[in-house]
Amino acid sequence: MNTPNKITCVRLATTFLIIIIFSLSFLPGSEVWAGNLVIFGFNIGFSWIDLVCCIIFILGSITDAIDGHIARSRHLITNLGKFLDPLADKALVDSALILLCARVDWYGHHQILPMLVVLFVFRDLAMDGLRMLASQRGIVLAANIWGKVKTGIQMGLIPVLFLNGFPFSLIPDQLNLEYWMANRYEKTYIIMNTFVIISLFFSLLSLGIYIGKNKNVFKEEK
Length: 222
Description:
Shape: globular
Structural class: mainly alpha
CATH topology: Four Helix Bundle (Hemerythrin (Met), subunit A)
């Protein structure tokens, strides 16, 4: 296994680490020992668990750029890498989205609309099925530009979601939005899910392009 693929495997490992750490927040009594951090008497809206998961996710996302750069610059692109790289991306991103969807705020909102997460996972399952069909015909499907745009938006958005919308949750009432601070979590919820919907658009767009360019994969063999 070459260096880029080893780095990709590290990204897979960060996924399991995030799942383990974030799951601590669902334990009974976690609101006592894993409550929101308070700095200079101000509740910043996220816990140490959220912060640690955010940092690990960012580090995992950075490996996505590193392994790709090394593979291209050193001509180490392999079929294994073309398979592992999107798999690691989906494992990291989809796991984070599912975990965040499972979290419910004081208003009873899921941090991410569940139906959006279902569509993300459906898209990725469909993509995996397409890759499997293609591999049976000796075709390797590499990520297209729209899939990369989708992944880029997700990897920029999820750290903010881990921090409960920080720093958007601290935006003052300068836009004549009534009672911003009193309703900051609800407004942050709307802002964050808007970006999630944008990411979903590019996600489904990339799937449509894959299907359109690889129609021959669906032809039955005689």
